[in-house]
Amino acid sequence: MEDINQQLHEAARRGKIKSIKKLLKKGADINQTDQDGNTPLHMAVQYGQENVIEYLINYGADVEKATPDGQTPLHIAAALERLQATKVILSHGAEVNKEKDDGWTALHGAAQNVNKEKDDGVTALHSAAYNGHIDVTKYLISQGAEVNKGMDDGWTALHSAAHNSHIDVTKYLISQGAEVNKGKDDAEVNKGKDDGWTALHSAAKSGHLNVTKYLISHGAEVNKDDKYGSTAVHSAVQEGHFGVTKYLLTQGINVNIGDRNGYTPLHIAAMNGDLDIVKVLLEEGALVDVQDAHGQTPMHLFLKKINGILDHRDDEALTAIYLATQNGYTQVVESLVSYGASLNIQSHDGKTCLHEAIILSDHTSRKEQTKARHQQISEDFSQHELSPDKTLVLYLLEHGAKLDIKDGQGKLPVHYANNEVIRQIIFSR
Fold first, then answer.
1. Cα gap 337→323, rounded to integer Å
2. Taking the model in full, what pTM does it have?
3. What is the pLDDT of residues 373-425, one digit of tens each?
4. What residue ranges define each of the domains in the chain, with the CATH number in brackets?
5. DSSP letter at 342?
6. Which of 206, 243, 265, 344 could form a disulfide with 237 if both were Cys (CB 3.0 to 4.6 A apart)?
């Protein structure tokens, strides 16, 4: 009978009602489980075969038959928001409060006794809101679900809807008692988790602009902070959500408000190296000299971030400043040095910026060999008297380029100095 029972499972999954009838007449076991513990009814519910569901139940399928983890057909119907299947199963006497092994009941998806909790305090309404099931949300509230009931960590249905950008659910929850100010009994836009985290924090952190706008339009406090001192704009900036950040800046937020560590939104954007957000914060009056709890300004943090980027090597172990030197881009080199780029990082063949600058100077000097031989060299090597390539060598030496680093051939920078001016610059150090 094993084969015929397997065929019954497959027919139920595919909604083949005629095949099901034939198999049952041949003696297939309507409540036989497969290797995962699913009966044909489980399969029909899982794949939304509503005509099969009713037929199997009428033929004698056990609506309370559970999988090894305690999942009944009703659990599946509720979790998948199969409302018609849920109604059919309930109409045939399924136990609505029956729990799975983890304490989850069908009520958490779409049933009655709407405030029954899982072990972590999750109710059916939390589940519906989190998954954006607007019809289930409406049904649960109509049956008395507590809109403001929190999980063990204080997370409400409104947090769940805002976090996942379910705007319809968000709107409906507010229309059903999600008041804009904190109240004793009703759900509120500004109600926080146990750590003070609000629905606006959730929407901002997740980058959901439409939900953010709606919450604020219904009175969400834009400067409300959690127990760590973070506001919604801190959350948006931390995650790099430019659109939400820009919108919050138009809604009266305190752009220079610091969290418990003294971090303003600008500190956070600087740490992240997010230039677009840094720019918009500065345009809205963010202060660059505000110190955090460690005495660091946003500029300090930005430079720390930039340094890591500046010294990043490509596949040939070349840094940005190395390439700029190699091409004689003096102004670029000067700019990179001002931001803290290292001059002494070696390339794949062991050369440093100074090696490359001297090589470049030598190539240039060959073109001007006659002129170079007669050039008057002053003792201070005034930059006004030097060609750009020689000025670059002098600049590197004045800003920490080392003369004692050997390349892969064992050569020091001076070994590449075939020009008299360059040699005198080096020997004068």
1. 13
2. 0.54
3. 444 444 444 444 556 667 899 999 999 999 999 999 999 999 999 888 888 88
4. 1-113 (1.25.40.20), 115-189+199-221 (1.25.40.20), 234-310 (1.25.40.20), 311-427 (1.25.40.20)
5. -
6. 265
